[in-house]
Amino acid sequence: MSAEAAAVPAAARLRITETFRSLQGEADASGWPTFFIRLTGCPLRCRYCDTAYAFEGGEWRTVAALVDEARASSAQHVCVTGGEPLAQKQCRNLLVALCDAGFRVSLETSGALDASGVDARVVRVIDVKTPGSGESERNLDLSRQGLRPTDQLKFVICGRADYEWARERLRRERLDTVCPVLFSPSWQELPARDLADWILADRLPVRFQLQLHKVLWGDVPGR
Q1: What is the pTM for the complete model shown?
Q2: Which end of the chain, C or N, has fewer beta carbons within 10 A?
């Protein structure tokens, strides 16, 4: 057990919107059976948000109970998501506890909150907000995030203007030399083939991704 886990109060609680087992639909773990823990609350209001139902409500659950539920799921991968999970103080303790339990843990977080100091065993998937999201001004300087090679930077592209914004930031900051960079088309807004063609035409060192869960099940909560 890590020193961090030993310091977590047994009754530490988080407000949870839902937990479920599905296939991971994004990033490097795409396709793996994964146990998802969706935390309630988010300070951002992205125009294309597909989890607005997680802004409010939820139920209080202890870290210990969530770890037990993850074990019962039989999944090796656990994804902590939201909403914005880092908006809850106990999220970092949950991540530590899940890592100590032997899971492969990923955190889906925006680029608007400080993700530095998150347990180094966690794969941080940081969603850098493009202008099309309506929240690009909230992005923190990536130098503050303490980026690691195991992290992933995701850009959700809503159209050509978003693509050019993300392309120039990629080149200017040489982001691909720091960690993998993912370009994803905004669901039902930008044709996936258009984004694929742009990436190939510009020879960008990024990974094109589709949201696999939406390809399979559409906009169904808990999938």
Answers
A1: 0.91
A2: N
Taking only the tens place, the pLDDT of each residue in 89-110 is 999 999 999 999 999 999 999 9
Between helices 192-201 and 160-173, what is the axis angle to 10°?
A: 40
CA distance 169 to 192: 21
| pLDDT tens digits for range 127-186 | 999 999 999 999 999 988 999 999 999 999 999 999 999 999 999 999 999 999 999 999
Tokens 């258009």 locate to 194
Rounded to 10°, the helix 91-100/63-72 angle is: 40
CATH numbers and ranges of domains, the chain: 3-215 (3.20.20.70)
For residue 188, report the phi and psi dihedrals to the nearest 5 degrees: 60, 20
